[in-house]
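Model the whole thing, not chain by chain.
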Amino acid sequence: EAGVAQSPRYKIIEKRQSVAFWCNPISGHATLYWYQQILGQGPKLLIQFQNNGVVDDSQLPKDRFSAERLKGVDSTLKIQPAKLEDSAVYLCASSFTGHHQETQYFGPGTRLLVL
Amino acid sequence: LAKTTQPISMDSYEGQEVNITCSHNNIATNDYITWYQQFPSQGPRFIIQGYKTKVTNEVASLFIPADRKSSTLSLPRVSLSDTAVYYCLVGEGGSGNTGKLIFGQGTTLQVKP
């Protein structure tokens, strides 16, 4: 079974530039998550999709971050404009139904450095 | 929302058994306890999940006392490849169906030769 795919793996940009990350979840998984992991900390949930609808985006900085999952499969996360504090690893995860405490499967992440 | 407390770091040697204890005093009645493992440059990976008493799989054991206010992840005979960060998570509780995982800082386990 193929895992969660993410691209790119690394990205370096200057502040105020824009950047986009792509995620393809495990086939058949209805729920997709985007997490932000700052160095030395645990991942923090940014947004959760159930199929192509948003379930939770309470911690997404909506003035600069946006995400979509138009066809209920793959997803993109965008930052525009980027700030220095956005330097982090952006992890995508998926689960079969998204039910409470169901196992989540994580991708390798995209490491973003904002200069 | 149940908060978890676990040691920031632990050291061990190859071949030893490692026990990582997590405190979750405010765990709700219907919460499960879940542990994830994260290697450098990888996303977290599910290790084990339990509700009460003892759960064992091919990777680890999870011990949960009757009051469920703490839990212990046990890794038998660790090897260098077990060097990683281990996260203890307790479910959001209530009737929520969001599947939200709240990660703390985790425990960094360093296995030495």
